[in-house]
Amino acid sequence: MSKGIDFEDDFLLVYLLYHKFNADGAFDSIRHFLNLKKNHSYLFHNIQFDFTAIPSCQFITVLPYRRSDGSVTVIFEYGKVYWNEISIETLKQLVFIVYQQLLRDPVSQVVGFNAIHDFSNAGIRLLRHCTISNLLLLNHVAFDCVPARYLEIHCVNGNFLLSTMLTLFKPFMSEKLRRILYFHSSPTDLLNYFPPSVLPAKYGGKLTDYYMAKWLQKANEQHESFTVKGQKNMFP
What we know:
Mean pLDDT: 92
GO molecular function: phosphatidylinositol bisphosphate binding
Pfam family, one: CRAL_TRIO
GO cellular component, one term: membrane
Low-confidence stretches: none
Number of helices: 8
Domain CRAL-TRIO: 60-211
Protein name: CRAL-TRIO domain-containing protein
């Protein structure tokens, strides 16, 4: 499957780093990555409109500051999603673009990622796409295809949508994922894991303007050249 592909050295190295230089493990992940390109090619295309100007597309962003350990944090605000403004394909593209472009940073490759999933105001409209196939695809991409080190996944403002997702996905949830999942009864509980300087004000932090529109636009532009060969590292 990989015969004849002249992979970027940086692209191969991130898989080796993720698998602690176990070549067999790295090759398995790359094989999954190549199959993903074959079966879900739209993920490898950039978005052909200014999604940063559309409220529903602002459901995902990278927080501007890292924790003291160097890890980067991605925030998901599902209450912003309305299907008349964003398709499920574009939603998947955005998530894929964010993580793929963050992985071009050597610091993120080594230190890893945190995620905050905020279910506030996420209504029944989102249930239509909370299917087993979509949840399994998300899990497959995150843990089999993308060589990202996930440190912590925090869920806040839980509601019936989160409960439904957990009920559907629990039988397929790996022990690795269970270990890094955190559920909080209050959003300010995040202060036990993040300094105030990193968090938005609504979680008890100090950030008031945290949507990284310019970074996301650049990531989308860079993603246009993302082929099956991978990309070179990008130093911030």
